[in-house]
Amino acid sequence: MERLPAVAGQFYPDDPSALQRELARCVPAVSAPRRAVAVISPHAGYVYSGQVAGETLAAVQVPDTVVVIGPNHHGRGAPVALMASGGWRLPLGVAPIEERLARLLLAHAPFIADDAEAHRFEHSLEVQVPFLQYRNPQVRIVPLVLGRLSLDACERLGEAVAEAIRAYGDDVLIVASSDMSHYEPRATATAKDRLALDRILALDPAGLLQTVAAHRITMCGVVPATVTLIAARRLGATAAELVRYSDSGEVSGDTLQVVGYAGVLIV
Could you give the domains of the chain? Predict the structure, then answer.
């Protein structure tokens, strides 16, 4: 089964040549990309968040297999939904699904649904994949979209992701897809996002989930980020670093209602 693009021509160019030029603009040359367990990367239109996403993914080695975890904005399908077979047809070509790792993930977490429908219109993962293809044209993906989950459910899923990656045996990067605060004045968004980022940089998944709830931070990918922190810690991550924080006002000029964007390396 092939998934067709849902937001090509909207969030990013649908013409391959134009997309290559846009990615070249967003992704800087880095002489020695680092090995990382995971990254957190934003998923807005490239004009707004492409620089943050590009700098983040330029800073790390992109192996042949990437687990991409994002929020389910539309609410379609299962609350924990994996597309376990087939590929994603995008302007730069088909990104095949790494079916062996997908099967391992299903085996380690029976509560995950093999549900392609949940992915059909979701943009949070799709906008990450051209960056991954640009960095590694051979990349294969394991796409997972999540609804609202409790901390206990996040812990069970994060542990399952880590165990599946261990059983897989080859290099894997986890990409958590999230924007930060939505439609707040810049000063408010920056202050709230700093609270969330402090928990991320401390590798504190429980604290992240609690902080976002307590301060009403509209971080759409808080659940994917929480799951990723749990998995990364199980896989041996010991530190996180902020690559860049920005907001939509840097492009639009509107600082009264910004969306925040952060890129984080987890190593």
Answer: 2-266 (3.40.830.10)
